[in-house]
Amino acid sequence: MIQHYLEQFNVFTTEEITEILSLFEIRKVQKHDFFIREGERCREIAFITSGLFRSYYVSDTGTETTYCFRFEQEFLAAYSSFITGKGSLENMQALSAASLYVIQKSAIDTYLSEKPNWIRFLKIIAEQQYIELEQRVFQLQKDSALKRYRALLDHQPEYIRDIPLQHLASYLGITQRHLSRIRKEIMF
What we know:
By secondary structure, the chain is α+β, with helices and mostly antiparallel strands. The chain has a domain at 2-111: Jelly Rolls. Helices cover 50% and strands 22% of the residues. It is built from nine helices and eight strands. It has a four-stranded antiparallel sheet. A hairpin with a 5-residue loop joins strand 4 (53-58) and strand 5. It starts with a helix and ends with a helix.
């Protein structure tokens, strides 16, 4: 699965992909386990081969706000912590049992100095993350909750049933009650 993902970018040779894959370790994660907690330093990146994660932060008042979901065939990391080496501002928690391919930052750093194609690949990933973040900001600022919910249904319909309502409502920036009204409206 990760091999196919890497191949689609047309950046790496077959030999480089084999080398890269040897740097990853497989990790199983149980539902409710954390990939990273607030305050920890992110020293690894994971590729999700199965499962679902949410990223959230906790306000000063103790309110959890879900701002991101990560699905199969996506990378998972507290990127700002990974880049800066500072403690994470977010929590990343499994919403289902999951399987990950995990690579350590030290392995990436070593590989970066030896393989220029890795730099090209990371640039592409960083650009994709920026575009995703920009789309999320625009979505929150200009789209209705109904439109945001429909977009999630269009892109990840198989996961909607696995996301607890309180996390889904938080992600959409609405109350659970409002989400229930939206779901009823869509069903009819």
